[in-house]
Design brief:
Radius of gyration: 20 Å
Largest sheet: none
Strand content: under 5%
Order of helices and strands: HHHH
Mean pLDDT: 84
Bound molecules: zinc ion
Structural class: mainly alpha
Number of strands: 0
Distance between the termini: 25 Å
Shape: elongated
Number of domains: 2
Oligomer: single chain
């Protein structure tokens, strides 16, 4: 198995994940609409609970939107042929790291360094 073949595998994985997220989002929207309909029902008195569900769904969708953005960025990097290269040192990111973290744009060493440098600034920066 060559690296190029593995990258194709990761690309297919990302595209499948993208479809799954979009599909899940549709389901979440339907669920949200159903909850809103229940709220209009005067018999329905668990408003607090549905507000919580509303919040959970919208934050879920926010996380999904962010993941779609990461997937799109990774796919763009594949199109331009720089996917799998560390943006800092330019060396190839090991395949096992890419398989575990397909959005990784840095090798493990640079990601750790980057995380240390940015820590204290914007909290909880993802360790890409
Ligand atoms: Zn590096």
């Amino acid at each position: 198995m060559t690296r190029a073949n593995d990258l194709i595998k990761i690309r297919e994985l990302l595209q499948r994940r993208r479809r799954e997220i979009l599909h899940a989002n549709e389901g979440a929207h339907r669920e949200l609409t159903a909850l809103k309909d229940q709220e209009r029902d005067p018999e329905y008195e668990e408003n607090a609970q549905s507000e919580l569900a509303d919040y959970t769904l919208s934050s879920l969708m926010e996380a999904q939107r962010r993941e779609i953005m990461l997937i799109d960025a990774a796919l763009r990097r594949m199109d331009t042929g720089v996917f799998g290269e560390c943006v800092d040192c330019g060396y190839e990111i090991p395949l096992d790291r890419l398989e575990a973290l397909p959005f990784a744009i840095r090798c493990e060493e640079d990601a750790t360094r980057h995380e240390l440098e940015t820590r204290g600034g914007h909290a909880a920066a993802p360790s890409l």
